[in-house]
Amino acid sequence: MGVSANNLGVRAGEDWLFRELDLAVAEGECLALTGSNGSGKSTLLRCLYGTQRPTEGQVRIFGQAPDERVPEFRRLASVLMDDSALFDELSPRQHLELLTRSYPGSPEADQELFASAGLDARMDVPAGKLSAGQRRRLLLLGAIARPHQLLLLDEPERALDAAGREWLVELVRAAKSRGAVVVVASHHLALVEDVADWTVDL
């Protein structure tokens, strides 16, 4: 099993965000997390990435406990969280070149790769001068491009227009076809319907 959780719970103060949660997501499947703001979607993603310890229960990612401090685990997981950021002074090309050096096996920052994201005309523009939608596309491109077996996406549709959301759907489907486990937290029901094999409403 790619991602599993047993009796998982996270408490915030005196209240539980979620409790007694069981998950089982196989390779090539997508789990969508839905629910209102503050329901615990981002918290659950952080538990799966190992940046937050659950109050109770356990998580296993391809048989191991998640911990983003461990290099072996970081080679398994790629993540786009709500606080993911870009270097404003670096261009999209430079961001992907940095990724290539940091994660061997990432594709070269070529025209075709940027064209797939609609960024081929902006490859050498500083990220600080990109629109919100273009910045989101670049963040998604970076998350997808690096090698991974687990892909965690926190509201990836944010700032994307209709064409961008269609591109996002294709990205998730391609990741699934390569055998990755994808977990998406989203408010966009059409996206959930297009990519999810399982849905958990928090």
UniProtKB/TrEMBL annotation:
One of its GO terms (molecular function) is ATP binding. SMART domains: AAA (SM00382). Pfam families: ABC_tran. Residues 3-202 form the ABC transporter domain. InterPro entries: AAA+_ATPase, ABC_transporter-like_ATP-bd, ABC_transporter-like_CS, P-loop_NTPase. The keyword GTP-binding does not apply. Keywords: ATP-binding, Nucleotide-binding. Gene3D superfamilies: P-loop containing nucleotide triphosphate hydrolases. CDD domains: ABC_DR_subfamily_A. This is ABC transporter domain-containing protein. It comes from Kutzneria albida DSM 43870. The lineage of its organism: Bacteria, Bacillati, Actinomycetota, Actinomycetes, Pseudonocardiales.
